[in-house]
Structure formats: C-alpha cells, structure tokens
Amino acid sequence: MDVTIYDVARQAGVSPATVSRVLNGSGRVAAATRRRVEAAVAQLGYEPNRVARSLATSVTHTLALLLPDITNPFFPALVKGVQLLAEERRYTLLLGHTGADPEREEAYLRVLRGKRVDGVILVGLTLDGRRIRGALGEVPVVVLDRPVDLPGAAVVRVDHRGGAFLAVRHLLELGHRDIAHVAGPRDLAVSRERLEGYREALAEAGLPYRPELVVEADFTEEGGYAAVRRLCAAGPFTAVFAANDLSAIGVVAALRERGLAVPDRVSVVGFDDIHLCAYTVPTLTTVRQPAYAMGRRAAELLIDAVQGGDPRGVVFAAELVVRGSTGPPAGGGSAG
Amino acid sequence: MDVTIYDVARQAGVSPATVSRVLNGSGRVAAATRRRVEAAVAQLGYEPNRVARSLATSVTHTLALLLPDITNPFFPALVKGVQLLAEERRYTLLLGHTGADPEREEAYLRVLRGKRVDGVILVGLTLDGRRIRGALGEVPVVVLDRPVDLPGAAVVRVDHRGGAFLAVRHLLELGHRDIAHVAGPRDLAVSRERLEGYREALAEAGLPYRPELVVEADFTEEGGYAAVRRLCAAGPFTAVFAANDLSAIGVVAALRERGLAVPDRVSVVGFDDIHLCAYTVPTLTTVRQPAYAMGRRAAELLIDAVQGGDPRGVVFAAELVVRGSTGPPAGGGSAG
DNA sequence: GGCGCCTGAGAAAGCGCTTTCATAGAGGGG
DNA sequence: CCCCTCTATGAAAGCGCTTTCTCAGGCGCC
Fold first, then answer.
1. Which residue of B has its CA nearest to A104?
2. Nearest Cα to B324, choosing from B268, B272, B271?
3. Are A116 and B49 within 8 A, CB to CB?
4. Which residues does chain A have within 8 Å of residue B116's beta carbon, measured at their own beta carbons?
5. CB A334 under 7 Å to nucleic chain C
6. Rounded alpha-carbon distances, angstroms, from residue B220 to A153, B212, B217, B267
7. A62: which strand partners?
8. What is the pLDDT of residue B100?
9. Do B70 and A76 touch (CB under 8 A)?
10. How far is CA A276 from CA A176, B42, B76, B261, in A?
11. Mean confidence (pLDDT) of chain A
C-alpha cells in the first residue's frame, strides 16, 4: 500500500538497514550509497512510518498538553508557546480538554500513557499527584501553576501573590482606601495566592482586612458582573481588584450600568493581561502573566526532562500594566 | 519495562491472542476466561501499547487540526468543538500552528502522514490542493472555509457573503448611506466573500459601489485602527462594516480617539462574534459565525470519512447579532 | 606477500500488538 | 459409539521500522 523502507531498499539496491542508517544519520554510509538511497527516497516519495519507528525506539516525539478549557482567553497564548517550542524541537503536540473534571483527566492520562507520549504538560489539573502517577506511569510531567505533590515533576508558575500585591499597591498609591476584591474560586491555589497578595498589600499600608469587601466569583464575566451587586450591598468602595481580566470586564460592565463611571468613580484592576484588555473602554489596568513565555518554558523543561535531564521549576514574575481603568478616587462619595 | 500483553497472558494463564480478544471484544471468549483476563489486567495495571496496536491495525485513532494561529480569538471555540467531538468518539487530537506559511504547512502535512493520523482538519491553509495531496497522500481531509480544489475533501464553510449582506443591510435599514468597509487581506477567500456581500447589499439598495470607502486591513486591531485614518482621508461615512471583530474593535478605538462617538456619530459592525464583543463599550454589533458548532461538525465529517463514508460539505448560516455599536446616522455631519 | 584492522553493509531479531489459521475438546445426531 | 460441527483457544506470522551482530573486502604495515 504505502511505500515502505523495503521498497526504498530494493529501489536503491541496498538493505533496509542501510536505508535506515541514511534516514537517521546513524552509522557510517559511503557517500555513493547515501546518494543512491536519497534518490530512491525522493523518487518513491517515501515518508517513514513513524508508528513503526516509535514501536522500535519507544520514542514518539509527541508531547501532550492538558488544560481545562481553551476558550479561557488566557490559554491560547500559552498553547501557542508550547506548540511553537515543541515544533522547533521536532515534537508534535496533542491537545486535551479536561473541563476540570477529575474523571476525564484520569481517562486522558491513561490514553496518553497508552499512546506512549514522551511527556505531558498539565494545566489546571484537579487530580492529586498519586492518581496522576497511577494513570500516567513514569511519563515526564511539567505542571503549570500548581504546587502539586508530584515527585519528579517540574513546576512552572507565576508569582500570583506578588502580582496581586502590585495591583493593590498601585490602587493604594493612587489614594484608594476602600478596595474590594472579586476573588476566584476558593479551591484554586491561584485564587488563594492572589487573595493573599491583596491582603498583604493592605497590611503593608496599615489597613485592616475587611472580609465583607471580598466576594468569590468564578473567573467569568458573568461572575464579575454578579459580584458587583453583592459588593454594592456590602459597603462603600472606590476600587476593585478582580482576580482575572474576564471578571474585571464583568465588573466594569456592572459598574457602568449602575452609573459608576470607571475610573472616575471606581477604579478597576484585572489580572492576566489578555489580549483585549488594551481594547476595552476604558482600557484595563491589569497584571500581566507572560502566558506565551510560560508555555515555551514549560515545553522546554518538559523536553529536557524527556531527554533525561532533571529540570528545576521556574517562577515567572507578574508585571503591573497601568492603563485607563485606574485613577485617583473621586473627591466625593464612593460606591455602595 | 512496561507491562505487556504477554505479562497479562502469563498472569491469566492464557495466550496473548486471548487477551487481545478480551481487550477488543473481538472473537468469542468464554466468560470465565474473560474474567481471569480482566482480573490480570486490573492487577497488573496493564495499559495496552497503542503504538504497537496502531502498527498492527494501521489505525491510530488520532486526528490533526492545522490552523494559522490559535491566538486569533475566533479559533479557540472551533478547536474546542473539534476536540470535544473527537474525544466523544475516542479520538485524540494533534494541534499544529502553520502561521499561514506554506512551507510549514507542507512540512506539517508530511509529519502527519508519517505519524499515520487518521484524518486532518485544515483551517486557513494557503497551500493548493495538489501540494496538500502530495504531502498528505491519501489521508482524509476536511477543509474549513475554503473552497479548495481537493478531490475527496469535505468542506465546512460559513456563508460569509450572506453574513456580510445581513450586516450591511442592517446598516442600510438604520438609514446609513455612506458605509465604509474595512476588508480583510485580499488574497483570502473569506475577505473576498464578505466584500461581495457588502457590495450586494449596496446594490440591492440601489447604491453605487465606492471603492474609496473600502480599505484593506489584516484582521487585527492594529489593522482596523490604521484603516480609519485612510478612511477619514477618503471621504465622509456614517458607518463601517469591518471584516472581523478584531478590526472592528480597532476601528472603534480609532474613531473614539478622533472624537467620533460610536454609535452616535458612526456605527460599526464586526464579523465573527468573538466572546468579548458582548463586553466592549459599546457592545459590538456583529455577525456570528458558529465556531464551536463548525468545529464539531468538521470533526464529525472527518470521522465519517475516516470510517469509509463520503461526507458532503456543510454550509453554516451566519447570523446578525445587534448590539450597541449601531444606530441611526447622526442628523448632522458625518465623519471624514 | 601475509596479517590484522578498519570501513561499509547485510542478516536477523525484536518492539507489542492483531489476526488468520489450525486444533483440541465438547456436544449432538444417526 | 462414531463422526461431524461448533466453540474456545493457541501458534505464529506480520505490521515497518531500528539495531546489534557479523562478515566481506580493502588497506597499511612489517
């Protein structure tokens, strides 16, 4: 059916072993022989069967990336980073949606082990380390943004606490004192870390932590939108630090509907720096996570691990990006 | 190293053939034997090596999706659609970035053929049919949004012409007469089709086509932003139909900077209905492409083709979504 | 001129499955 | 009671590569 290494060998008048050597640059082959083989390959349009090669070498040159949901706008840049680095190193990338569902995660990991992928990047996993290893066996793993209890896995993370600290300190420096926080889901480590940064900045400024100004949302616009209602009921505030850009956008929309202009009446800061922050009105002040760079780095670490290295984890700094949604508090009354 | 089918066979006291039959539900196996095998599988934590299976069956249960750039906000929903359907049908998805570069496209296709993927979904390809087939051999293909000269490939497309027609007719119905168009790259079919819809709507309304009101951009915010300058130099207009949402957002930003309020002074319509259209200010009137549904459908057609069917193409209708960026033309002067 | 060594290339096994073919044994019918 | 027909299972080949082992021949050296 397809042309095989035997066809090429026959055409070139050599053995399959020699064709293999030419193809892989392994072993020594006389120049004339090499040319004959290359001619045969070209003439037959031969493309080696990598499944067979993988079976023989037990290397698939395939990496996998598992994430909850690619429509979360933080992920595409990350995926691109992983993908491009993988491609540069001649790896191919499998993509999987887990929907943050532990059963699906586990099922996926089993499939990946079965497919003998060389390594896996895990983002937003909910599974614990024991079950991951149980499903995945020895396959090298890089984990994003989760201090997972996975022996041997390198972790790539962002300093969420530090980023949140920067955001809130920015608001404090503008003169805000009543700063609310629209948090992420309590059970995610990143939510907790950002909340921590918020508290730390308040503490550093000598301000008390006021739990009524912290409401939990779910990282969506709808969540941010809904959070504003609860916040307005809770008490006056002149600024909001939202745990991510999507909810910040929801917050801005809700404030606007209530006649609370941003940033004139209320300042808003987000987190992530998704692409569209620069194009909303007002443009959104936020904390940038270097998603693309993180993706590249994760892929790099993974390939290191695949090739026998023992890579250390990396922590990326988050960076404050000041745009149009923050300003000094209004002289007059505040919201709520 | 890893546990193989031989280990399972030994443990269960049967032959590998029987284990294979149990695993695949092929052939007849006595109930008692089946139970013994299943117990052995569970006890050893056996996960079949799918590379070996693929070599034996020449089926990999892997699909590939090639697209120019996943950070284009239109794509994530599409990817998700493909991915989820693939998963439901027990296929795994390979993702590739082509960057709209024909060389990379061709290289990728070769790799995919080598990896013996069962089928490929091609989005935004620049290669012609002959080279695609040359690189990919007989592998089944579904093409998105491009009437490609690829015999045997099913095509999933959106009625761009019809969608653009709806957008412009909406503007006409509001009373606009001077309607500009920020087009996409001339060499892409979708750009041309949307331009066509624009012209048709004008023609239907008995309005002349005025080339000076059509400027080419590149589907980015920056492109839309820059287009406004050229448009303002070209002549007065009270509405802009942008070829996609990203450029529409750039257009809105540029208009705002020139003091041309949207929609009070100028109305703007986009195309795609990316997620954030509902959260910009003003919210963006646009033409929705059902990206998720298209992804699912493409995957469905591909799997049909893989399993021996001969699927027909599908055309999705585009739908006008009226939001806040369009309104009747201002009584007074227009922009430009 | 003979010997050892090095280079280039082939033979064959093995990677972990599937699947065809063959066969032992269990029933059933005459 | 024998033969035939199924049913359940095993043996072995084959999928298309890689890689080890082996060997033929050419060369340099003494």
1. B87
2. B268
3. yes
4. 49-51
5. no
6. 38, 21, 8, 19
7. A92
8. 87
9. yes
10. 26, 49, 15, 20
11. 93
pLDDT in tens, A302-329: 999 999 888 888 999 999 999 999 999 9
User: CB–CB of B281 and A281 under 8 A?
Assistant: yes
The pLDDT assigned to A107 comes to 96
Tell me if the pTM is above 0.85: yes
What nucleotides of chain C have any atom within 7 angstroms of a protein Cβ? 7-12, 14-20
Encoding tokens for residue A262? 């941003």
The closest alpha carbon to B165, from B173, B154, B175, belongs to B173
Contact assignment for B95 to A96 by CB distance below 8 Å? no
Q: Name the pairing type of β-strands B92-97 and A92-97.
A: antiparallel
Minimal CA–CA distance to A318: which of A176, A193, A188? A193
SS3 (DSSP) at A119: strand
Alpha carbon of residue A83 to chain centroid: 12
Q: Please check the confidence at residue B146 and state whether its pLDDT lies above 80.
A: no
Contacts of B51 in chain A (CB under 8 A): 51, 54-55, 58, 60, 115-116
User: What is the model's pLDDT at position B331?
Assistant: 67
Q: What percent of chain A has pLDDT over 70?
A: 98
Residues facing A141 on adjacent strands: A120
Q: For residue A197, what are the β-bridge partners?
A: none
Could you report the per-residue pLDDT of B9-38, keeping only the tens digit for each?
999 999 999 999 999 998 888 999 999 999
A279 closest CB neighbour out of B58, B110, B253: B253
Search chain B and give the residue with CA nearest A276: B276
Predicted confidence (pLDDT) per residue in B151-182, tens digit:
889 999 999 999 999 999 999 999 999 999 99
Q: Please say whether the beta carbons of B306 and B59 come within 8 A.
A: no
* Residue A280 pLDDT: 81
Which of A92, A245, A247, A256 to substitute to test the interface with B, most B CBs within 10 Å?
A: A92
Chain D bases closer than 7 A to any CB of the protein: 7-12, 14-20
